[in-house]
């Protein structure tokens, strides 16, 4: 049904993060239509819900979700599974498309080939978990957060709200928004350390 | 560069979620170019965005949505050979030597893109005088919310004591300054919320060039600074 919002207790069709990453790699390598169809089934409805939160119109959200998935197809060769999980990468595509469409500008990003770029001596030294494992841990840490902390995290990512706007929306002081975010971050980080 | 002052975690999270003004985003991306630690944190926040995307509500796509997308992609693939890829034009803008060794290696791309054509060094920027020893160049952004400007402060000159109605960030490009918080050198970011007053003083050895982004006008305390406010226009 068009425009139906369904709250799912976790993914209804549990797909492992690793599989999603493999599908993107496969799209890049062989223009794998089957892999694209699976990726579409998993992510397009999520991206549509994301766009709906910003645009408030299900036709626009549908169109933008389609456009985001087309970008996934076109940019698949730029996906690097050692740098980001599929969900992280698709989130950034959706975010950038949303800013492009609703705010009429590009999201300003670091240019990886910039001559001014300063790189870490040993960036991967402390990476003990893969990006896919990391994504799964972040997700379970997010789901374990107390409701008030989870709400500020979700509003931060899923609405075009500054932290002071979140404070207004929830009718709580700005300091409380910041402290809830900090607590959430702390919990998510320590969760990652425990499991790593 | 040995960066000691970074944007706050909330600021980096707002960057990752895409909820900050263009002015602020420009400053954060310029800092991130020279700061691997903040790039790593932002990647972590983007993973949080991915987790929110995974765990939040989803909305059913229309029937045949995939077929429609697939058909469009087929057409595109068929025309792929006709498409001409535009190569990005690489510009370089020099920062120049710093006698105290506090300078970015060159101007990062996000900032270059906001500078007028033909500018190849900081000297070429059409600076405008704001006050004795203080020059600025206002960058144009698409969004009306927030302002972003480059400031050039002569050695030893002090910016009047001011607080902020909103969020203000300063990124040092060359030289250094000292305020109540500490010493800021190239690559450092002073990330100030609305409850902080500060009075930066440029290093006496050389001029200080910095990028300042605000979400709201600064407010100056004292009588003389109030006279300066119209000049700052901020």
SSE map:
The complex is a heterodimer of chains A (196) and B (234).
Chain A: E1 5-6, H1 17-30, H2 33-55, H3 58-75, H4 86-102, H5 131-143, H6 147-158, H7 163-170, H8 174-195
Helix pairs in contact in A: 1-2, 2-3, 2-4, 3-4, 5-8, 6-8, 7-8
Chain B: H1 9-17, H2 22-34, H3 36-55, E1 58-59, H4 65-78, H5 109-112, E2 128-131, E3 134-139, E4 147-153, E5 162-164, E6 168-174, E7 177-178, E8 183-184, E9 189-192, E10 201-202, E11 208-214, E12 218-220, H6 223-232
Antiparallel strand pairs in B: 2-3, 3-4, 4-11, 5-12, 6-9, 6-11, 7-8, 7-10
Give a description of the structure.
The complex is a heterodimer of chains A (196) and B (234). Chain A has helices at 17-30, 33-55, 58-75, 86-102, 131-143, 147-158, 163-170, 174-195; one strand spanning 5-6. Chain A is mainly alpha-helical. Chain A folds into two domains: 11-108, RNA polymerase sigma factor, region 2, helix turn helix motif (Rna Polymerase Sigma Factor, Chain: A), CATH 1.10.1740.10; 144-196, Winged helix-like DNA-binding domain superfamily/Winged helix DNA-binding domain (Arc Repressor Mutant, subunit A, Orthogonal Bundle), CATH 1.10.10. Chain A is globular and about 50 Å long. Mean pLDDT of chain A is 87; it is low at 7-13. Chain B has 234 residues and is of the alpha+beta class. Chain B has one domain (1-56, 88-227): Jelly Rolls (Sandwich). Chain B contains six helices and twelve strands. In chain B, the strands form three sheets. A six-stranded antiparallel beta sheet of chain B has the order 2-3-4-11-6-9. In chain B, strand 2 and strand 3 (134-139) form a beta hairpin. In chain B, helix 1 (9-17) crosses helix 3 (36-55) and helix 2 (22-34) packs across helix 3 (36-55). Chains A and B meet through strand 1, helix 2, helix 3, helix 4 and helix 5 of A and helix 1, helix 2, helix 3, strand 1 and helix 4 of B.
């Amino acid at each position: 049904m068009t425009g139906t919002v369904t709250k799912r207790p976790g993914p209804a069709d549990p797909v492992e993060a690793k599989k999603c990453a493999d599908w993107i790699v496969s799209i890049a390598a062989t223009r794998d239509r089957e892999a694209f169809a699976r990726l579409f089934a998993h992510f397009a409805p999520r991206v549509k819900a994301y766009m709906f939160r910003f645009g408030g119109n299900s036709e626009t959200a549908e169109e933008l979700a389609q456009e985001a998935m087309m970008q996934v197809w076109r940019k698949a060769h730029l996906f690097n599974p050692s740098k980001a999980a599929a969900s992280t990468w698709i989130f950034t595509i959706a975010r950038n498309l949303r800013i492009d469409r609703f705010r009429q500008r590009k999201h300003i990003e670091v240019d990886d080939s910039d001559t001014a770029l300063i790189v870490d001596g040993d960036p991967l030294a402390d990476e003990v978990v893969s990006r896919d494992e990391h994504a799964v841990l972040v997700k379970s840490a997010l789901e374990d957060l107390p409701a008030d902390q989870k709400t500020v995290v979700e509003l931060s990512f899923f609405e075009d709200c500054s932290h002071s706007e979140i404070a207004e929306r929830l009718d709580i002081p700005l300091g409380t928004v910041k402290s809830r975010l900090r607590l959430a971050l702390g919990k998510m980080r320590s969760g990652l350390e425990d499991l790593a | 560069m040995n960066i000691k002052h970074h944007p706050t975690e909330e600021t980096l999270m707002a960057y990752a979620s895409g909820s900050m003004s263009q002015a602020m985003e420009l400053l954060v991306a310029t800092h991130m170019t020279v700061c691997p630690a903040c790039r790593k944190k932002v990647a972590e926040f983007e993973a949080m965005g991915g987790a929110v995307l995974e765990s939040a509500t989803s909305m059913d796509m229309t029937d045949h949505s995939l077929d429609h997308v697939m058909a469009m992609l087929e057409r595109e693939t068929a025309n792929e050979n006709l498409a001409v890829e535009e190569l990005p034009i690489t510009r370089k803008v020099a920062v120049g030597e710093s006698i105290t060794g506090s300078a970015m290696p060159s101007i990062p791309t996000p900032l270059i893109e906001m500078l007028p054509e033909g500018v190849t060094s900081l000297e070429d920027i059409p600076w405008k005088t704001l006050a004795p020893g203080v020059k600025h160049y206002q960058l144009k952004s698409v969004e009306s919310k927030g302002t972003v400007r480059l400031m050039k402060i002569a050695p030893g000159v002090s910016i009047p004591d001011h607080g902020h109605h909103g969020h203000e960030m300063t990124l040092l490009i060359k030289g250094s300054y000292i305020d109540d918080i500490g010493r800021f050198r190239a690559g450092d970011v002073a990330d100030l919320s609305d409850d902080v007053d500060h009075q930066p003083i440029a290093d006496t050895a050389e001029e200080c060039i910095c990028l300042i982004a605000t979400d709201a006008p600064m407010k100056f305390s004292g009588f003389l600074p109030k006279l300066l406010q119209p000049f700052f226009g901020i």
